[in-house]
Amino acid sequence: MLLIDTDPGLDDAHALAMAFGRMPADELIVTTVAGNVGIDAVTRNAQHLVRAIAPGIPVARGAAAPLLGTPVEAPHIHGADGIAGFAWPDTDLGPLHPSHAAEVIIEAAQVHGKDLAVVALGPLTNLALAIRLEPGIIDQIGRVVSMGGSPSGRGNASVTAEFNVFADPVAAEIVYSTVRNHTVITWDLSLDNRFTRSELDGFWAGTTAAASTLRAIDAHRQSTEPQYDTASTFGRVDPLAMAVALDPSVVTAEDEHAVLVDTTDGLARGYTAVDWSDSVGERPKILIPRAIDRDRACALLTL
């Protein structure tokens, strides 16, 4: 069972499509969290993607704000609606799951146990809430793969911090300090593994519902964003996280250390500090991939 906690979001859409095209609907759960844009928009986008690619997957709405402070969003990257103004062909979204995302995570952990993998593509608010409500789930969930952090300090939301952790550093600290069997796909890995326009076009050149949906979204983005249209390489950080979740053998080299998060509101807010010397004691160690099998990753990114 795969639970995807997400804030779609353009590259979230690609990551979701990867899972939707490979797994049965009854083995997937989607929960949403405010991140790239607000909770209403990301939830609508998740519902649209489910409707277009894999009807029947439950979608549960989650946190509208970080655990502390005000929401941090990125409409300058994803557009006000999170999907660059793309006009969905079908406006019938269907019902949402009646429970909050944190409750859905708890229930999934209790029902599926070690058979449950959680892929967190946005801020970690929902997972942190679930842990605070029911701490026992950290021993029940089989595996967590999250996208977040920049141990090198090459930030994309600030000078030092990656967006997902910057948006809710308190939630990230809760998850990083408690969850075992946790793999973190960092912004650094994405910077080291960018893709050409030819590779991107190949990812959605097929005839599946997933490919045609992502192809339409990408064509719209090219037609409306000159900088995107003329770029030579592209990051795919959420799809890389999904690739590792679907096939851990994509990773060819990794480190394993505790990671601490700066939860203050200063210059280092959201900075992810790796305990390279293993000096902090009982804190869980996190797997941090630093190299991937690019051919295998490209095969998984292809819809």
From TrEMBL:
Keyword Ribosomal protein applies: no
UniProt xrefs under InterPro entries: Inosine/uridine_hydrolase_dom (IPR001910), IUN_hydrolase (IPR052775), Ribo_hydro-like (IPR036452)
Highest taxon, organism lineage: Bacteria
Molecular function as annotated in GO: hydrolase activity, hydrolyzing N-glycosyl compounds
Keywords: Hydrolase
Family annotation (Gene3D superfamilies): Ribonucleoside hydrolase-like
Residue ranges of every copy of the Inosine/uridine-preferring nucleoside hydrolase domain listed in the record: 2-296
Protein name: Inosine-uridine nucleoside N-ribohydrolase
